[in-house]
Amino acid sequence: MRSDYSEINRKGLGITPVIYAGMRMGEGIGAVCLLPLLDMAQALHNGSSAFSSAGVKQYEDLGGDRQ
Questions:
Q1: Residue 61: its pLDDT value, please?
Q2: Closest CA to 3 of 29, 34, 27, 26
Q3: Whether this model's pTM surpasses 0.70
């Protein structure tokens, strides 16, 4: 039976991995896999328009039925 020291450490610190793929390769391979995902998220965020520049109007309460 193989000991999973990274799981023991995570439980001790009370943290969970961002990506859990069950690879058990060690050496922080999950962190290396996360970097391209973070790059894509940043590119999406930086390339997105703000509501005002996209022509989205301010919210206006039209007084409809609310239950």
A1: 87
A2: 26
A3: no
Which 3-state string (H, E, C) describes the chain? CCCCHHHHHHHHHCCCCCCCCCCCCCCCHHHHHHHHHHHHHHHHHHHCCCCCCCCCCCCCCCCCCCC
CA pair distance 2, 25, nearest whole angstrom: 13
Binned average pLDDT, 10 residues per bin, the chain of 67 residues: 69 84 70 88 90 84 76
> Where does residue 33 rank: exposed (0-12), middle (13-18), buried (19+ CB within 10 A)?
middle
CA distance 48 to 53: 10
Q: What is the pLDDT of residue 1?
A: 46
Only one residue has tokens 């309460």, namely: 61
